[in-house]
Design the sequence.
């Protein structure tokens, strides 16, 4: 999503991981929202997640790393973003 596109292949991967209903919801959100609004919502979710138990945080970090490893694009910006999200959870 960092490239502001949600290709068919990305949609299939997203649907496989989160389900068809979540895929439809995220497509709608992308169509009506600016990326900055979406990024703000993600950061708000991470703020809430920071109050979780350590074991829950570790599960989230593990899942983030798994998703990142499966991603098609690994560039400096995506690495910075994943590192920032993990740092917020620690």
Sequence:
């Amino acid at each position: 999503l960092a490239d502001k596109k949600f290709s068919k292949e990305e949609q299939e991967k997203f649907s496989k991981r989160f389900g068809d209903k979540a895929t439809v919801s995220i497509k709608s959100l992308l169509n009506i929202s600016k990326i900055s609004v979406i990024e703000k919502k993600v950061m708000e979710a991470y703020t809430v997640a920071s109050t979780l138990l350590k074991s829950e945080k570790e599960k989230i970090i593990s899942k983030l790393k798994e998703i990142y490893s499966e991603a098609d694009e690994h560039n400096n910006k995506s690495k910075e973003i994943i590192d920032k999200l993990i740092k917020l959870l620690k």
User: Anything to note?
Assistant: The helical segments are 8-18, 20-32, 35-49, 54-70, 76-89. The chain has two domains: 1-32, 35-90. The first helix runs from residue 8 to 18.
